[in-house]
Amino acid sequence: MTRLYFLGGEDVVKRDSKGINKKAFIDAGGAPVVLVFPWTAKSVDEADKYRKTMIDYFKELGASKIEIAEPSDSLEEIAEKINGSDLIYLPGGDAKILVERIKNAKVDNLLRKYSKVIIGNSAGALALCKDCILTKGKDNPVTTIISGFGLVDFSVEVHYDASKDEELKKLSTRRRIYAIPERRAVVYNNGNLSFIGDVYLFYGGKKTKC
User: Which residues, other chains included, contact 41 with Cβ-Cβ below 8 Å and sequence gap of 6+?
Assistant: First the structure.
């Protein structure tokens, strides 16, 4: 039974979405084996710093074991780690880098077959969608749409605030977009959706509260 958590953004140092992650851990058995893909950082130093933060955080949440998918791992090694995990965590960072690295390693096929719990935080949430929408902001000079992993047929907007409404209305004429503020989440459970905190749906050029 696949269950996906789309987080709108979390400060992992402050642990400001601890309750959401704890719920996902419970869904994954309470003391899950967690597999982290720290593949969103542009530099090795940044990735190493993030890795330590994640390990400490997930130990605090009750993980029985924390595995790291290394970029140097073979596809067979990653497949073994995925099969041995109860929960996969795709972190925040650069969504373009995450999508490119996962696809180049052919790991996206493994993620689509995974039947347990996946948490996508910010960039990780964007990447899980069929259309990965990178709206204009400080990291994106123009709005860009790239092909994501396609685990769901909708898209998400992370770190949402109302200043993006007009752009999201235009983008939603052909697709459903769930706009998720920070410290909020959409939970996908085999086609059924639930919402943690205020989340908004943009569809057909209109905005509604979920």
Answer: 47, 50, 93, 94, 97
Tell me, what's the pLDDT at 50? 79
What per-residue confidence (pLDDT) applies to 201?
98
Nearest to 85 by CA among 102, 110, 61: 110
Residue 195 has a pLDDT of 98
> Which superfamily does 3-209 belong to?
Class I glutamine amidotransferase (GATase) domain (3.40.50.880)
Encoded amino acid at 23, one letter: K
Q: What is the mean pLDDT of each run of 10 residues along the chain (210 residues)?
A: 93 94 97 95 70 92 96 96 98 94 96 97 97 87 93 97 96 96 97 97 98
CA distances from 59 to 90, 96, 113, 166 (A): 17, 28, 26, 41
pTM: 0.95
Q: Show me where the domains of the chain are located.
A: 3-209
